[in-house]
Specification:
By secondary structure, the protein is of the alpha+beta class. Among the domains are: 112 residues, no CATH class; 99 residues, Outer membrane lipoprotein wza domain like (Outer membrane lipoprotein wza fold like, Roll), CATH 3.10.560. It has 7 helices and 11 strands. Helix 1 packs antiparallel against helix 7.
């Protein structure tokens, strides 16, 4: 009985200490080191479900995946024959064609064809096999097309004369938008955080972010969700609170913000869940210690009782 009373006393003492520590942590997080007060932005100040905006022109960066195709336009044979015929004439009034004529038919590049997917390397270059590597990081799709076309034209010679730029056709498109992402972070209630990185396709909202992680976890607090927009300085932070109940149950779109590249959607855990997990983590070694102590006490008592019994039988 005395050991059980001591056990209850120690557990109560540890529990009180845990509650005090949790309260101190809460006050500390609410101080100057925390994000500060969260204010709802004015109506129309932040793009949301009812007022989305078009993202700026996409800029290629590693590790985007591109579809690149390059072909050569065939020379119009009849046009070339007419030109050669005119060159042979000695008449000064003979009309000389200024440029090579091309047909609507195309053919593969002379060294090897280019018609496949390429991933932008970490150094910002795209490797085109025998044609070498071309820097395209930081360029738009159209700028990348022109850069690839210019680089290829320096390595390909025209057999029929004329300008290579007139015969070379380059098509560039992005097939995997890997460089522009956002992050969804779900709080585990003092049991770590789950971080999920998702690609930006141009029209994601808070509801899409939550749907892409399979919904809110069971420990999530529906009234403690926000979007943290990246900023260079701490005092310039932009925290956008999310009214999940209003979005999901009432259809209020004011806080269903449009997600931009680099955004962090943070889902806080319920406070009781955090306290329960903290108590379990702190009390678990205490309970194990008392369990080992009681087991040892019971074992000693049993051995001592058996020893007395053997002595009585011996007498």
């Amino acid at each position: 009985m005395r050991s059980q009373a001591h056990r209850r006393w120690w557990i109560g003492l540890v529990t009180a200490g845990v509650f005090l520590s949790v309260g101190c942590l809460g006050r500390q997080n609410a101080g100057q080191n925390g994000p500060g007060p969260i204010l709802v932005p004015p109506v129309g100040a932040v793009p949301n479900e009812l007022s989305p905006v078009t993202l700026p022109e996409y800029v290629i960066e590693p590790p985007d995946v591109l579809q690149i195709e390059a072909v050569m336009r065939k020379v119009d044979v009849q046009g070339r024959a007419d030109r050669d015929k005119d060159k042979d004439k000695d008449k000064p009034e003979a009309k000389k064609p200024d440029a090579v004529k091309y047909s609507n038919e195309t053919e593969a590049l002379p060294i090897h064809p280019i018609a496949q997917q390429f991933q932008v390397q970490p150094d910002g270059f795209v490797h085109l096999g025998a044609y070498g590597s071309i820097p395209i990081s930081g360029l738009t799709v159209n700028q990348a097309r022109l850069a690839i076309r210019a680089a290829l034209s320096k390595q390909i010679e025209m057999e029929a004369g004329g300008k290579i730029e007139d015969a070379l056709i380059v098509v560039v498109s992005v097939v995997q938008y890997n460089s522009k992402t956002y992050t969804v972070i779900t709080d585990g209630g003092n049991n770590g955080e789950r971080v999920t990185k998702l690609p930006i396709t141009g029209k994601e909202f808070v509801t899409d972010a939550i749907a892409n992680i399979g919904g809110l976890p069971v420990e999530a607090s529906k009234r403690n969700i926000w979007v943290a927009r990246r900023t260079p300085e701490l005092n310039e932070q932009q925290i956008l609170p999310v009214d999940w109940v209003g979005i999901s149950q009432w259809g209020v779109a004011a806080t269903n913000y449009q997600i931009f590249p680099g955004d962090r959607v943070y889902v806080k855990a319920q406070r009781l869940v955090a306290v329960d997990n903290t108590l379990a983590r702190i009390l678990s070694p205490v309970q194990q210690l008392f369990g080992v102590t009681l087991l040892g006490t019971q074992t000693v008592n049993q051995v001592a009782g058996r020893g007395i019994g053997f002595g009585n039988n011996g007498n």
